[in-house]
Amino acid sequence: MEDSKAPVSEHGGETSKAAVLGVAASSGSRRAATRGLAVLDLILRFVAVIASVGSAIAMGTTNQTLPFFTQFLRFKAQYSDLPTLTFFVVVNSIVAAYLVLSIPLSIVHVMASRAKYSRLVLVFFDAAMLALVTAAASAAAAVVYLAHKGNARANWFAICQQFDSFCERISGSLIGSFAAMALLLLLILLSAAALARS
Amino acid sequence: MEDSKAPVSEHGGETSKAAVLGVAASSGSRRAATRGLAVLDLILRFVAVIASVGSAIAMGTTNQTLPFFTQFLRFKAQYSDLPTLTFFVVVNSIVAAYLVLSIPLSIVHVMASRAKYSRLVLVFFDAAMLALVTAAASAAAAVVYLAHKGNARANWFAICQQFDSFCERISGSLIGSFAAMALLLLLILLSAAALARS
């Protein structure tokens, strides 16, 4: 008999064999679905890298010099004038670096769809990076809001009235960071779904 | 025979029964460990509720009136003067409400330790709330930093030099929110670990 090495009792061979085949078929289609999730995970990671790198570059390269100056002062604005925007550039670079490093692990998950503990590690670090990029994006958004609107009660002046193109640039660079945030949220959901399926 | 209703073939009863008992024993100890994770999850949720409610109350009830005033102005500071701090109070209330609503589901997980899809829902909403509370806490932190240090390049004045007790209070109220953030990060890890074990 061919299936004598299988861990089913030899006497009930016919029914057991059918049951084993059924389990194999259903776990096969399950594995294919989990592999689909892993491929989607890989694609989203690439998009998130582009979003956060784009965000860091857009913020890091912005500066504006006003066309008038006094004897002592040149009116020049760049991201490093505001510590929060420096934090934004640093964090987006860190998150992009993490995402690049996580891509090999994501490729492993496409091959080995039953991996559990490496997925668990990814969920944790994805959540930590979600917190980090959200912190940077919203702190920068709070400062950009102040730059646009100012605050009458605190006597903070709306600097965007002078530095208009600088303000447009720093507002735009927030988009990539918020996109990376949404993608990381999706990545956590995908990893958790893969864990629930395995 | 007692186990005739069980889905094992009757002929190989002895070996199959032993195998089933072995599986049951190992899944029993596994289930106990998963239940331990679920109890920890429940406790952390209670702590996170206290942290975020405390944070919202500390920020919401703060105000300071300076002991001098002119004919037209009274110098008074409260959280609603800065939109970012209003956002902070609103988000902390929302997160606290979500955490309270999630407690019944967490209790269900202590009983039914094999629940998968409800854990998946919790992971997703926990991650969304993590993003929300991080956004509020770090936007408020950015504004509190400006209130303390000001910014010479943007001509933003450090209002904490006048409103000292107001500033101490709003700085302190950030702690609860950052604690809630760390707890939510742990809760995501716990749910993912429970999913990996089930």
TrEMBL record, chains A, B:
Keyword Transcription regulation set for record: no
Compartment annotation: Cell membrane
Transmembrane segments: 37-62, 82-108, 120-147, 174-196
Major localisation: membrane
Keywords, alphabetical: Cell membrane, Cell wall biogenesis/degradation, Membrane, Transmembrane, Transmembrane helix
Domain Casparian strip membrane protein, residue spans: 35-182
GO cellular component: plasma membrane
Pfam families hit by this protein: CASP_dom (PF04535)
Membrane topology listed for this record: Multi-pass membrane protein
One Gene Ontology term from the biological process aspect of the record: cell wall organization
Protein family per UniProt: Belongs to the Casparian strip membrane proteins (CASP) family.
Function, as annotated: Regulates membrane-cell wall junctions and localized cell wall deposition. Required for establishment of the Casparian strip membrane domain (CSD) and the subsequent formation of Casparian strips, a cell wall modification of the root endodermis that determines an apoplastic barrier between the intraorganismal apoplasm and the extraorganismal apoplasm and prevents lateral diffusion.
Assembly with partners or alone: Homodimer and heterodimers.
Record protein name field: CASP-like protein
Organism phylogeny: Eukaryota, Viridiplantae, Streptophyta, Embryophyta, Tracheophyta
